[in-house]
């Protein structure tokens, strides 16, 4: 069925019609957007399944000769569609800096230690409830040279495939209460505050494992009014 969304429902982005911005009424749509049904060519693509994921791929702390340095955490949540329905069998990939704010990458010259027991990459496939779960290390903030004294808030990069490439989402997950939020141009490039807040995980005491790891909840919405903001 063809869905019709009001223009403002796609609110992760600036409004198309801004009365104070005089040229927008000339070029912005005045009628509700019509979302066209995808054709077979758009919906056909690689199909990911649980077979392609090795045991332990969702545990970023278990691939070295010893434990990585830093604070072990659980990051978990659900992948949902625009109606809040779970998206099962969705490939979720993450990558991140280590606890010191350092990536294993040739262009990362931040003078912080590389952790030989932490690559910073992991992946999982959602179950029938759209649920995924990672065990990882809380990443550190790092400088990025965008401007004087520029530091990225601690974050984890996410790539999520829905049922096909057309529903791929690439975003960043942040941690609640980070003091760097007001100073980060990437975080603030999402101008809608509610949309921005959807990129911040929630501390989740219920899923914290006593004596072992704190948990953070991060639900991801692929489309619609409550869409998780997508990187451009
Ligand atoms: Fe990053």
Overview of the structural elements:
The protein has 232 residues and is mainly β. The chain has a single domain, classed as Sandwich (Protocatechuate 3,4-Dioxygenase, subunit A), CATH 2.60.130. It contains four helices and 13 strands. Strands 3, 6, 11, 12 and 13 form a five-stranded mixed beta sheet that branches. The longest helix has 5 residues, at 193-197. It is globular. Residues 1-9 have low confidence and may be disordered. Bound molecules: fe (ii) ion. Fe (ii) ion binds next to strand 9.
Note the topology.
Layout: E1 3-5, H1 24-27, E2 33-35, H2 40-43, E3 72-80, E4 91-96, E5 121-125, E6 131-137, E7 142-143, E8 151-152, E9 155-160, E10 169-174, H3 185-188, H4 193-197, E11 202-203, E12 214-217, E13 220-221
Parallel strand pairs: 3-12, 3-13
Antiparallel strand pairs: 1-2, 3-6, 4-5, 4-9, 7-8, 9-10, 11-12
């Amino acid at each position: 069925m063809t869905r019709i969304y009001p223009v403002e429902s796609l609110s992760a982005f600036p409004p198309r019609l801004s009365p104070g911005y005089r040229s927008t009424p000339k070029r912005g749509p005045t009628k509700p957007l019509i979302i066209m049904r995808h054709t077979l060519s758009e919906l056909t693509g690689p199909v990911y399944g649980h077979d392609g994921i090795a045991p332990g791929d969702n545990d970023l702390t278990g691939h070295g000769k010893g434990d990585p340095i830093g604070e072990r955490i659980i990051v978990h949540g659900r992948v949902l569609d625009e109606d809040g329905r779970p998206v099962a069998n969705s490939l979720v990939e993450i990558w991140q800096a280590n606890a010191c704010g350092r990536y294993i990458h040739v262009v990362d010259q931040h003078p912080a230690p590389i952790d030989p027991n932490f690559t910073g990459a992991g992946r999982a496939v959602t179950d029938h409830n759209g649920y995924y779960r990672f065990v990882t290390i809380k990443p550190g903030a790092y400088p990025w040279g965008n401007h004087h004294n520029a530091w990225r808030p601690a974050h984890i990069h996410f790539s999520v495939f829905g049922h096909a490439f057309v529903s791929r989402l690439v975003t960043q997950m942040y941690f609640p209460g980070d003091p760097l939020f007001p100073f980060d141009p990437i975080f603030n490039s999402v101008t809608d505050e509610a949309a921005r807040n959807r990129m911040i995980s929630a501390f989740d005491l219920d899923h914290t494992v006593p004596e072992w790891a704190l948990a953070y909840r991060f639900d991801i919405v692929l489309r619609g009014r409550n869409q998780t903001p997508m990187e451009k």
